[in-house]
Amino acid sequence: MIETRELTKVFRDRKRGEIRAVDGLTLRVAPGCIYGLLGANGAGKTTALRLLATLLRPTSGVATVGGYDVAAEPERVRARVGFLAASTALYGRLTARETIIYFGRLNGLAEPELAARLARLADELELHEFLDRRCDKLSTGMKQRTSIARTIIHDPAVMIFDEPTLGLDVMAARAIVRFVRGCRDRGKTVIYSTHVMAEAEKLCDTIGIIHNGRLLAEGSLEELRASYREQDLEDIFVSAVGGKAERWAE
Amino acid sequence: MMFWSNVRTVYGKELRDALRDRRSVISMFVVPTLVMPLLLLTAGMIMAKVVKKAQDEASAIVIVGGADSPQVVAALRADARLRTVGIDGDFRRMIAEKRVRAAVELPAGFEASLAAGEPATVTLHYNEGELKSGFGVNELERFFRELRERTVAERLKRRGLPEGLVKPFEVKRSNAAPEKTGGNLLGGIVPYAIVLLCFTGAMYPAIDLTAGEKERGTMETLLCSPVDRTALVLGKFLTVLTASLATMACTLVSMVACLLVGGTLLFGGSAGASGAAASPALTLDPFGVAGVFVMVLPVAVLFSAVLLAVALCAKNIKEAQTYVSPMAIVIVLPAMIGMLPGVELDARLALVPILNLTLACKEMLSGEWHWPYLALIFGSTALYAAGALAAAVALFKRESVLFRA
User: Fold this and answer.
1) CB B17 to CB A93 under 8 A?
2) To bridge B377 with a disulfide, which of B13, B48, B112, B356 should be the other Cys (CB 3.0-4.6 Å)?
3) A89: chain B residues, CB-CB within 8 Å
4) What are the sequence ranges of the domains in chain B?
5) What are the pLDDT digits (tens) for B347-377?
6) Do A106 and B220 touch (CB under 8 A)?
7) For the domain bounded by B54-165, which CATH number is listed?
8) Which residues are registered as beta bridge partners of A158?
9) Residues 206-245 of B with CB under 8 A from A
10) Cα–chain-centroid distance for residue B386?
């Protein structure tokens, strides 16, 4: 379960002054659901997800992940979260096996359990072929599968995906989408940020449209279509970030 | 318990990662073990060979005047260590063009003056900035010193006086440095080299483990793990410290080996006691070396923590290098001041980081052990190091540092 109430993050920049990257974000994601955070570049998606993953501390507001407050118990939150982003890279000089084992150990897994989980993930994600190859020698697809294994080695209840398909080819992106669906099917709480409308349409049970750090619209695809009287998500998005949507959000 | 287990996990991973990185291995092992000693040995051997050749060679000289002093001219020509060359134009030009090493100008009626017991001045011309010219003028001085001694001895003999009349006593030099080491030539160079290599050994891993992680995008991956930030910093810090100490240990071992081999090659004696006797200024006391290793520990901690903190503030490797490179000059300065003759350890200087280590090492390697100063240096440096480590931990918890745009 993910819950946020009036979650706000303010950055102070010498040149640009105060930047409200996330502004009063309130949302709730239930287990077995995929919540899509849809927004343009710079809308505040990454900051919101980094707040949930405890990489950043909120300026104000509350967020709980798996029942733990992100500000008060960040380590407990991180132990229950798997964070996968286009920007989370792998250690090039470690092998895929070493990488997965490293993150397993950092997540406090005992060696026998770690070995069993690694074996299972290697089967599920078909890692055997390159498990002992250095990450910098892997193809994009192999890296991606290793990243997924690294993210879920501790079997987290909550999955946070920050534009995970960014820069990937069609096949690799489809594999990610399939994996995200699998997470939902296994009852995990999933929050997924994207600016690709088709991805949000296909994948998300609930879509939140975020712009300038503020959540402007929220609901299932059908609910959004009904609210905005538009069929296409892109049209809904444009309406939402325009004047009409601002009124709705207020 | 979990905390230290995490520190061990991070340390193990970072060390493995560093040992697979060619640049880290080069700065940790190859430079101190191979490149530095090879450079020192090669330079030393070439220098020794050149100097020996120049010394062994008969010095080419030119005689100016001396037409009325045939015996002196003949003796100069007969001297095995001198090779007389005929004058060709201006003798000064001949020296400047390195055709001869030196020139001897005999005054008119030199031999007649000697016979009459009148004073006379022989002028030796040479180029002070030229090593070989110095050897040439030394040989000429030796020749005329011997001639003077022979002349004095003959005069005394003619008058029936004892030789001791003009030499009532002898003056000789004796080295009063502590028995174990002959001097502080190495006492000055070794700490300087150690400080520099201790820093450079830590430099690359510190950058790679902080700014490098940011640049490659692995920092965010790491920060997603539930490990306490302090454990992450300690794991990384221990890796940088290991690199620094490994560099220093390699330097010490290779320098000692270089000294033993170099001493044999340069001075022809065997290593050890006879080598020490042959080159007292180039010996190292094993206790002194152990002392250096102990005293350098807090400095290595200080360097590792400071480098980690500074490099963490950079957003990529290039930026980190621009921050860190000038620091190498900053640390070299006090090390160089410590090498200067006359700069001695006192309570005030014992509080100045790096300079205090250089001075203490200089003393320890020449067999002097000022325990209160050593304790003060160790304590103060450990305190600075703890402060730097605390700063690194604090920086690692600041999101403005970790996620600098």
Assistant:
1) yes
2) B356
3) 216-218, 221
4) 2-44+181-402, 54-165
5) 888 888 888 888 888 788 777 788 888 899 8
6) no
7) 3.40.1710.10
8) A81, A189
9) 216-218, 220-221, 223-228
10) 30
